[in-house]
Amino acid sequence: MFNIFEYLMHLQNLDSIILNQKRKIVQKNEEIGKIQHHIENKKLEWENYRKLYDKERIELSRLELELKDIEEKLKKSQNRLYSGDVQSGKELSQWKLTMESYEKNKSNLEDDVINQIDKVESMNIKEKEKEHQLSIQRLEKEIESLKNDIDKMKSELAHNLQLRTSATQNIPAEILSLYEELRKKFPDPVVEMDGDNCRGCHLGLPSSIAKRVRKREEIIQCPNCHRLIFYK
Ligand SMILES: [Zn+2]
Question: CATH class for domain 21-171?
Fold first, then answer.
């Protein structure tokens, strides 16, 4: 009988290792999921930044065109004066007003262009793009290393499952199925007797049962929690 308890303890140890490994694999997969989500978010953020940058660039081009346009108008207007097109005093004062308004427009537009250039440059698009790509690469490397960990864990798990199969072969079928049933309820279906107490539920065992456990001749279950109790 004592041997069976050794086998059962061995099985129980293996089962806790196996459970642990399965949990770790789940955890690592969850980590991968989180990182992938993080990557999606970063890509989306980057796309939005890129779109904003393009918008500002387009605005800059628009302002530059407008400035060019006003410069041409100014030139044309100046030419009118030189070509002698403006003759009367009334025409001259009209011409001056137009020129003033063009000049004002031009100066405003020049400020706008400078501001817009600052805006576009301060977006540091090249640097940001590099940063973005580096951070994606870093996250992808993390995933890669987690996947390697999982592969390693899976092969360890497969090995332990094999060990488990051979461990069960030493245990009589009815005791094994009892163990499997209890295992659904407890992580430790097999416990050592602690004084006269069950180490699982910590309740005292009737002395007749404690005596039988000490004899190590049969499989005894705790009358309270039904764990299998053994005595070393
Ligand atoms: Zn108990």
Answer: mainly alpha
